[in-house]
Amino acid sequence: MAAIELNGVTKRFEDDEGLFDTLLPSSEPDTVTAVDDLSFSVAEGEVFGFLGPNGAGKSTTINMLLDFVRPTSGSVRVLGHDAQAESVAVRRRTGVLPEGYEVYDRLTGREHVEFAIESKEADDDPDELLSRVGLTPDEADRRAGGYSKGMSQRLALSMALAGSPDLLVLDEPSSGLDPAGAREMRDIVRTEADRGATVFFSSHVLAQVEAVCDRVGIMRDGELIAEDTIEGLRDRVDAEAVLRIDVDGDADLDAVRALDGVSSVESDGDRLVVGCTDDAKTRVIEAVEAGGATVADFETDSASLEDIFLAYTEGDDPADEPEVAA
Amino acid sequence: MTLESVARKDFRDALRSRWLLGLTLFFALLIGGSTALFYGVLLSGAGANSETLFGLTTAPGGLFNFSYAGMLGFVLALIALVTAHGSLIDERESGTIKLLLSLPNSRRDVVFGKLVGRTLVVLVSMLVGFVVALFAMLFTGGQVMFVSYAGQVALSGLLATAFVSIGVWLSATSASQRQALFGTVGLYFIFAVLWSTVATGVPRLVNWVIEQLGLTALTAPQIVQMRLFIKYLNPLRAYETLVAELYGPAVAARLFKAGLAERLAIESSFSQSLPFYFTGPFILAILIAWIVVPPLLGYRAFEKADL
Fold first, then answer.
1. pLDDT band with cut points at 50, 70 and 90 for residue A323
2. 8 Å CB contact of B307 and A68
């Protein structure tokens, strides 16, 4: 059974209808499509990274998993339950680190965790949960109103871990954390995954995703434009490699430029910088040597996941992107 | 179960913010202080009982009307609205609601847990005020009519709860704190100020329409009845007349503040038999409806809302 299953989910936001909007004739209806016909599933036990630039629809999707927001159409199932009708059942087995939340100013850190344990009818030790996320007993006894963003984030994570949930939904978990905190966060995600929990987390920080995810999905403009393993993504994107060659003698630049897969050649004295596809690298070296120059040394930078991510999310039109299926 | 933990958390928050403490002091001073002042200073040693202050005071000819319950009702309603109007929208606007609802709390738990929590805050502080007033009466030699006084406290609790309910309803339906605030001010204005104009205006309007249609105009007693019926739909007025009934006859309680012409038109028929829709139980039912209906409406709206 899939831990998360979305089928043709669309969410359009209308102008918020409050008391006054109900009473007064509203001005022009303001509709924004945040998520457009989205379908995907996450298997049990999987660590799924949900990527995309801000405003791509990641949080709206997550909010639909948690019934903070209701889909305009389509169905959302989480842990075998209908996410809307059986939301409480979903949240009983799910640990959530929401986006755009705020802690209760007047409750201490420990009281937050106790509240989470009580709500989930779990029997965790609050201090143990707090120490797992790196909050000291002293910090836990302070009111959360004085917490920094990073401490609040740790606190919310410890609340999410209460009751050993079958599913962890983490929306931008590393925001507000310093690099050390972000690493601890990754360690916790791994530990939870090893325990058998499904982890679904969103991020625009690629390093987070690259390090811990089994699979990623990339959102853009409300649509899932790619869904694959990190390696699979890497293969699919015909990304640029950068080849730096130190040459003795004059290289035949035109011959290199004429090669298949070469997009740019620049000469900087004894050094050539060649932009080309991964498989063109050998041909470039051969062409340089065939032209009479000697290759003294060379190095290549393969495309990083960052490049792949940018290639997906910064293209002009999603329709131009490589067709990707799971 | 989780309704209870939401309520407990909300109550603790009121404790921490000193809101509960502030309200308790306020009610101790207002209810306790005014009672002490009345029995201790104004009526010192005059053999007064509870009714002297808490019953209706009507000077002959209706030149001067005073009802302690009427005055206290205004204050209780305002305090209850202030306490409750932010209950849900504050959490929505700050984002704490996401923490609350990421746990296995249903939206029902949240709405009704808030209702319970905020109601307790108002009731606890109000009760302290009434206890102080009780001691004030005892110490100043006022004769306490315990049964009536208990009834008065209970009715005050119902009124406060009704306005907490109304506040939670506003909070649940509003899309922003500003809306909730304006809604609260507006509704308070309607209940406290505008209602009597409506109660007087509607029968006249109805009568005018009937006359325009060439039908038989309403009789004077009918007009008075209609006005009174609308008047007692207002929880503030329902509370006032119910408290008055604890200390005096029902007919006088219903006709409090009625003009001479109105009394002439209806007093004798009321004295023979009070229509069921002006009886104590019926008006009590109206007050209870104000407790039950608003949170249900609020829950319906909140249930559907995108957070």
1. very low
2. yes
Cβ neighbors of B170 (< 8 A, separation 6 or more) are: A19, B81, B84, B85, B180, B183, B184, B187, B298
Model pTM score = 0.84
Q: Are strands A2-13 and A198-203 parallel, antiparallel or unpaired?
A: unpaired
Which of A326, A310, A308 lies closest to A229 in space, CA to CA? Answer: A326
What pLDDT score does A15 carry? Answer: 63
Cβ of residue A231 closer than 8 Å to a chain B Cβ: no
- Predicted local distance difference test score (pLDDT) of residue A279: 78
Q: Which residue has the tokens 């897969």?
A: A261
Beta-carbon separation of A102 and B99 below 8 A: yes
Q: Does A125 touch chain B (CB under 8 A)?
A: no
Res A26 pLDDT > 80: no
Instruction: List own/partner pairs for A118-124 with CB under 8 A and 24 or more apart.
Output: A118/B5, A119/B2, A119/B5, A119/B103, A119/B104, A119/B105, A120/A92, A120/A162, A120/A163, A120/B103, A120/B104, A121/A92, A121/A163, A121/B1, A122/A162, A122/A163, A122/A164, A124/A161, A124/A162, A124/A163, A124/A164
> In angstroms, what separates the C-alpha of B128 from chain A's closest C-alpha?
25
- For the stretch B97-131, pLDDT in tens is 999 999 999 999 999 999 999 999 999 999 999 99
Query: Largest Cα–Cα distance in chain A?
Result: 83
Q: Give how far the C-alpha of residue A281 lies from the chain's centroid of Cα atoms, to the nearest Å.
A: 31
Task: Tell me if chain B has a CB within 8 Å of the CB of A106.
Answer: yes
User: pLDDT tens for residues A75-126?
Assistant: 999 999 999 999 999 999 999 999 889 999 999 999 999 999 998 999 999 9
Give the CA angle between residues B222, B224, B228 to the nearest 5°.
Answer: 115
Interface test with B, best of A33, A104, A108 (most B CBs within 10 A): A104
The answer to whether B103 contacts A116, with C-beta atoms less than 8 Å apart, is yes
pLDDT at A174: 84
Nearest CB to A19 within list B99, B174, B304: B174
Q: How many CA atoms lie within 13 Å of A75's alpha carbon, on the beta-carbon side?
A: 9
Interface A-B: count of C-beta contacts within 8 A: 97
pLDDT score at B59:
65
**Which residues contact residue A204 at a Cβ distance below 8 angstroms, ignoring those fewer than 6 apart?**
A51, A52, A53, A54, A172
What is the structure's pLDDT at A159? 96
Interface test with B, best of A92, A94, A101, A142 (most B CBs within 10 A): A101
- State the pLDDT at residue B124: 96
Does residue B286 contact residue B254 with C-beta atoms inside 8 Å?
no
Q: How far is B169 from chain A (nearest CA, A)?
A: 10
